[in-house]
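hey can u run this one w/ flavin-adenine dinucleotide bound, need the C-alpha cells asap thx
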Amino acid sequence: MAMTIEPLAGWGRLPLVSAPQARPTTTGELTAAWAVPGRRISRGLGRAYGDASLPAAGGFALSALGMSRMISFEVATGLLVAESGVSLAEIIEVFLPRGWFLPVVPGTKFVTLGGAVAADIHGKNHHVDGTFGAHVAWLDLLLPTGGSLRCSEGQEAAVFRATIGGMGLTGHIARVAIRLRRVPSAWCKVRTLRGRDLSHTLELLAANDGSYRHTVAWMDCVAVGDRLGRGVVMLGNEASPAELPAKNAAAPHRLPRRPKLAVPFDLPECALGPFTVGAFNACYYGLAKDAETLVDFEKFFFPLDTIRDWNRIYGRRGFAQFQAYFPDATAEAGLRACLAAIGRSRQASFLAVLKRSGPANDFPLSFLDLGYTLALDIPGPAKTLAPLMAELDAILVAHRGKVYFAKDAFVSPALIPAMYPRLDEFRLVRRSLDPAGTVRSLLSNRLKLHD
Ligand SMILES: Cc1cc2nc3c(=O)[nH]c(=O)nc-3n(C[C@H](O)[C@H](O)[C@H](O)COP(=O)(O)OP(=O)(O)OC[C@H]3O[C@@H](n4cnc5c(N)ncnc54)[C@H](O)[C@@H]3O)c2cc1C
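ok here u go:
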C-alpha cells in the first residue's frame, strides 16, 4: 500500500509532525493498509486539537477520508449506515433538506463519522440527548490483529463501549450505523440572556436545562473582579415551520446561502493580543441583548465554519484548547480558579464556551458527566502554554475535574487515572484486542493509555 510522507497536525497545529500516511479508497486497499506491520493510528479530518490523530514515533497514519460512502438509509427508523470517512457536513448536506439531522453535533461540521465516534463527541444538547455514541446502533471495527468485528450494545458490548470514546485505540472504525433524528426545520428559536458574573451565568444555564434542548454560553475570559465569569447565554429550541417567516416556511429545511470566507495566511502574533481580545469581548458582551431571535442551524451550531482555516488567526505559533469538565458540586469554585489563572496569564483568546452537561454514559473513556464544561483557546507557542496548562490541570485535579482527550496536548499522564477512573477497564479491553500494542498515537503514548 503506497504511503506519502506528510506534515500532520491537529487543529491547534501543536505539535506538528512529518509522518507516512496511507489513504485507501477501496475495501481491499483498506485491509492491505491496516495490515502493514508497525505502529499505526486512524485519522479523520484532523479536528482534534492536539496529538490524538498523530502517529507515534516510527508509525503511520491511516486516513479514513478515502472511504466516505453512505451505504443505506432506513426512513422508518432514521438509521444511516456509512463509511467512517464521511464528514458530518456531507451527511447534513444530504439529509437536512429531507428533514433529518444528526442527533449530536460538535462546534464544527468538518469532522468525520469515525472521529465523532472515537472521541464520543458532545454538543449543545448533552443534557438532553447525551453524546454521539448514545445514537450509534453498531459499528464495524478492523481489529489490530487482523479481521473485523461488528459490535453493538447487544454484540461484543465491551469492545463497542471501549471503542466509543476510545480515541482510535481499539482499531480502525470502518463503518458506523447512526440514528438520525427528524427535525421540524433548519432553524432554532434562540433566547439570548446576559450573565453578569460567573454565578449568574451558571444559574441561567442550570435554570433553563429543562426548557431548552440546546444551551451554551460564550464567556468573557478577560473580565476580572466582580465581572469575572460574565457571559452571553444562548438557549435554543428547534422552530416549527409555523414559527418561520413566510419566505422560509415554504422550504423550512433549506439553509440560507452565505459567502464563504477564509483566512488566507498566518496572521502575525500581535493580531490577537490582550488588547484586541479585551476590546472584542467588551463589544460582544456590551452589544448582546436579552432577546429571542430565529437563527439557522449553520449559524447556531457551526458559527466558525463560515471562515475556512480560521486556526490561522493564531499565526505560526499555533494554539491549544483547554477543555475542562467539573461536576456540579465543584464547578463554580473550579471555574472561578481557572478563569482567575487565565486572566492573570493575559493569554486568553475571545473563543471561550461554557456548556451544561448531563449524566455520564457507559463508555469508559467518555468525557462528560453531570456538571459543566468550559472550552477555550490559548495561543502558543508551546513553551509559554506549558506553565499555564500545568496550573490549570492542578486546578482541575483539586476540583475533581478532567480534561478532554480530543482537545488535549499538555496534560501530565500522572493525572489521568484520577480524571478517568475507568481507565483500567479500558486498558483491559484494549490489551485483549491489541496485545502487541501496535495501535498507538502520540496522545496514547504521552498519556500511557495502553499500560
Ligand atoms: C472548531 C472545533 C469545534 C469543536 N467542537 C467540539 C464540540 O463542541 N464537542 C466535541 O465533542 N468536540 C468538538 N471538537 C473536537 C472534534 O469534534 C473531535 O476532535 C473529533 O474527534 C474530530 O474528528 P476528526 O474526523 O477530525 O478526527 P481526527 O481529529 O482526525 O481524530 C480524532 C480521534 O479520532 C480517531 N479516529 C478518527 N477516525 C477514526 C476511525 N475511522 N477509526 C478509529 N479512530 C478514528 C483518531 O485516531 C483520533 O484519536 C471541535 C473541534 C473543532 C476544530
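The chain has 14 helices and 21 strands. anyway lmk if its weird
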